[in-house]
Amino acid sequence: MIKDIKANLKSILQLTLVMSFPLLVLVIFGFFLINDFTLFFREVGAIVLITAIFTGVILLINSFKIKKISLFIFQFVLALLVAIKAFFYFTFGTKPSASAIFIIFETNAKEVSEFFSSYFNISILLLITLCFLVFIFLIINLFYKPKFFQFLRFHKTSSIFKITLILLMLFSGYVLNRSFSEQSIILKLSHSIKEYNIAKNYYKEHLAKPNNNAINIISKDEEPQVGIVIIGESTSKWHMQLYGYNRETNPELSKLKDEFYLFNNVIAPDVMTIMSLEKVLTLSDYNNPKIDNNFSVVQLANAAAFETHWISNQQPVGFTESTPTIIATAAQYKTFLASDSYMYTIYDEALIPEIKKALKTKSKRKLIFVHLIGTHRIYKNRYPEAKGYNYFKGINERTMFKNEYSKAKVNEYDNAVRYNDFIVSEIIKLTKAENKNSFVVYFSDHGDDVFDTQDFVGHHRHKGSKPMFDIPFLSWFSKDYLEKNKRIDTLNNYVNRKYNAEDFIYSFSDLINVNFKGFDETRSIFSPKFKARKRVIKKDLNYDTWQ
Predict the structure, then answer these.
(1) Which has the minimum average pLDDT: 120-134, 352-366, 462-476?
(2) Which pLDDT band, with edges at 50, 70 and 90, does 108 fall under?
């Protein structure tokens, strides 16, 4: 054993030095990026163990060629793991989470590229380049100095050496799984895939089919009715003129403000689309995320004998089928504009002709769900500059962190909000022109913080702030609807209610005059019996006492 080490000491040291470079990067930069010492120790410990396992594998391989291939693969994986950690700690101040991995599963390649490009800057580029420095060095030597890899030619080792090495690797793997699994992206990915598949099967079982036996309709209105539910994307009320923002981001809706009800105190249940909509559009909520006998607003509309349409400007699949798509699958008619051309910019106005078609179908009872791309990053891709929507210039005085970058992002976001204003107002006008018993409801899945409360742009759970939770919520009703539903006249008294959009299925049921088993009128924002509930977000945080 000792003879084996002495005979290969120089090679072992060189291999260890090469393999440990990503670890060194993590130690140096993690010291400055990771504020919690215990977390810093655990992050370093996880990479130490993974590095030890990878190094042990290379030591066990006899073939020089396979050793060299393994060195490249393991060095790349280590560099990638450290680069991912560095990116998350540098950008969000937190480790890569299971929820982040879930979102990657449900996100298409275009959105992934937009996500990373949104937060990519010269500092991140330099940090990631540093992580891959030895890997790049190895590639250069492969072509220009192949003799460099001679250190991988070990002297023959004994069986005792190999057995000891295997035992040490197994022990490292055991400790990694037992004590550092939260810091191991590889293990987290493995566990997340398992959890994700369980969650996905749950959604498909409960939410994908048009008919759901869990729905027990007690009573329903048989009157002709047309309803449109507009689901926005990443739009915070903090940047809406309707809610007191100092820029004219709602010129069109402002013209209609006497015709709709603007609710002032509505929050999203989460700051990530998937986690938010799985609650907003179903019976699930914070306390019951995987409620038994779950169903969606689409299935409820089907059960109430509505013709249902889902019209979306978001791609139906990511790396897997997304949760909103599973909910949409239950609709009788589905249109996904971005299914084939998601690599190109499709503005939300492309939805208008599809909504017109749905409004003109023969059915007298129909519900149209419209899923916008809204103000999703990258903001400048969300509005047509040629049509005058590159409107805002200069630095907004309300921006908390003022620099050239924030100036550009705030202007782009406000332009996107202004274009979104046009889309929502157009849909209201289309519905109004039908002159039928009808309503339109608009809300966003969550908001973005665009340098409003922190030096940050976008949305992330760890960075979660009030602009990410505070969402617009408005309702428009036709005269015919108001006449048939006399209690709606009292809605002006309701607009300041404290409401969590996770209860939307109850409000939706109230709007379409459907009573189902389990319906709770006190959770409808439109009901005279409404009762304010504790609004829990993040990890048991009461939104209404949150500073």
Answers:
(1) 120-134
(2) low
Say how far apart CA 186 and CA 540 lie, in whole Å.
29
CB atoms within 10 A of CB 533: 15
> Which letter does DSSP use for residue 134 in this model?
H
Place of tokens 């670890």: 23
List, in sequence order, the alpha helices (H) in 61-152.
Answer: 64-92, 98-105, 109-119, 122-131, 133-144
Question: Is the Cβ–Cβ distance between 55 and 181 less than 8 Å?
Answer: no
pTM higher than the cut 0.85: no
Which residues are CB-contacts of 292 (< 8 A; sequence separation ≥ 6)? Answer: none
Between the alpha carbon of residue 16 and those of residues 22, 41, 162, 203, 520, the distances in Å are 11, 20, 17, 46, 63
**In whole angstroms, what is the distance from residue 280 CA to residue 385 CA?**
32
Kindly report the number of other CB atoms within 10 A of residue 526's CB atom.
25
Residues 392 and 407: beta-carbon distance below 8 Å: no
Report pLDDT for 512.
95
Report the relative pairing of strands 365-371 and 307-312 from DSSP bridges.
parallel
Q: Which two tokens stand for residue 455?
A: 């030096």
C-alpha–C-alpha distance, residues 155 and 7, integer Å: 7
- Cα-based distances in Å from 234 to 22, 444, 459: 35, 7, 8
Q: How many CB atoms lie within 10 A of CB 254?
A: 15
Mean residue pLDDT of the chain comes to 89
Burial class for 233, CB neighbours closer than 10 Å (0-12, 13-18, 19+) = buried
Q: Which amino acid is at 493?
A: N
Q: Which two tokens stand for residue 392?
A: 């805002």
- Whether the per-residue pLDDT at 325 is higher than 90: the answer is no
Helices assigned H by DSSP within 155-257: 159-179, 185-207, 251-255
Single-letter residue type at 454: Q
> Roughly what angle, to the nearest 10 degrees, separates helices 2-19 and 64-92?
40
| Tens of pLDDT, residues 124-174 | 889 999 999 999 999 999 888 888 899 888 888 888 888 899 999 999 998
Taking alpha carbons only, the member of 174, 181, 214, 215 closest to residue 195 is: 181
Can you tell me the mean pLDDT for 264-281? 94
Answer yes or no: are the C-beta atoms of 188 and 181 closer than 8 Å: yes
Residue 319, CB-side half-sphere exposure with 13 Å CA sphere: 13
Q: Stretch 274-281: mean pLDDT, rounded?
A: 92
CA–CA distance, 249 with 254 (Å, rounded to integer): 9
